[in-house]
């Protein structure tokens, strides 16, 4: 007599998948075979797929689940606390496949009501995140970057008096920083994408900090030695932005990118404020050498913190928890280092040239304001040097605040379903047209309060560029974010050097209205180019 054994109802199958920890699989006991009695098979190991394990900073996948006979019904947990199972397992069951006999079953197992995308089930534990530590350390690095950069603009006055330098020599010393800064924009991006942002940013901070410390010594040796020291400082600071962009492209998910980049860049504005505020007091108390020794030593102290707690990517971080690791890796680019840079491909895309052209247009006006602002206050408004220095700090305050406000607005729009392309274009258009409008007003304003208000509004709206232009490199090419920023920032540095020099020539025969007119024209060109050719979609894999 032919007989068959087996469990043929969905309730038995469901109960076989439940235990105290969650789901446990049990082989369906028996199969139908014509003319033969099939023996009962022993129960296989649990169906629960183990979470990935990290070994030495890398992630290794668990072995695949056993191949089982197909269940007769979907197995959905109905036990209380199903959400806890989901949180513990994350996406371990995504794409799980149960195979047996000639049939197969592919699908996802979920708790509670079931369904939903796999990314929505990847949840993080509450508390401080490792990526926030990385962002905080980058913020401090950029704060130190601009503190070390602006201290010379204050210290140059007593230094030039001490060594009896003329204005041409002062200009030479001030510009020597940019010689090195220009050299490492692209190189810094290549190094960061190839060797990792942690090493390159750490190298940059140590390099420029040492150059800062030896600046007083170099000045007392000879002028050429001082110029070499300032050039070395520029070399170190030149790698900072590409390296930081590389790091955050790996650490920060797309929905958090604008506010994270804005926060880090606001470290530069905060550093300028602190440098301009502290340097006069330190020089008055301890002499002009003190600002270089103290600021440089702060950078070396930062490196000790960085070397101990930073990682080039989440996969290389032994302190990150599994939930945050899964969340980041599902929403960021590959952490694999580059072995080659596809230069021809990068330079063949309109999106790359939109970055390059618009970075040039943006930095022309920005550098003019930052370098010539005290002179404008003194020559046009008749303020003394102390008052000019004080009012020069205020635009940095508005930039630090509005950069973070713009970042939160941009990320909120993305989270609410706006396309990244639309958000980037809106934010950068504000960053171009806002300064353009207020610079046109400066030619008609003669009051101190009106001029300062225009400067603050211009630079405050300029900071929205952090959520437009400066966030776009990681959008179009996450793996090449450092190289792309190096390319565009090279154009930006050129604009700063040329714009600063051109302003001096314009003022010899022209007026400040012409200076502002050139900057406004470039802002308008940048607006058109950006809205025609920029995109927030990934262009390079």
UniProtKB/TrEMBL annotation:
Positions of the Major facilitator superfamily (MFS) profile domain: 134-538
As for subcellular location, the record says: Membrane; Plastid, Chloroplast
| Chief localization | membrane
Transferase found in the keyword field: no
**According to its record, how does it sit in the membrane?**
Multi-pass membrane protein
Keyword Transcription regulation, does the record have it?
no
Per the record, GO CC terms?
chloroplast; plastid membrane
Q: Which residues cross the membrane?
A: 132-156, 176-193, 200-219, 225-248, 260-279, 285-305, 353-373, 393-414, 435-460, 480-507, 514-533
Tell me the keywords, alphabetical order.
Answer: Chloroplast, Membrane, Plastid, Transit peptide, Transmembrane, Transmembrane helix
Region feature (Disordered): 36-81
Q: Which InterPro entries match?
A: MFS, MFS_dom, MFS_Na/Anion_cotransporter, MFS_trans_sf, SLC17A9-like
Entry's Gene Ontology molecular function annotations: phosphate transmembrane transporter activity
Family named by the database record? Belongs to the major facilitator superfamily. Sodium/anion cotransporter (TC 2.A.1.14) family.
Entry protein name = Major facilitator superfamily (MFS) profile domain-containing protein
Q: Which organism is it from?
A: Chlorella variabilis
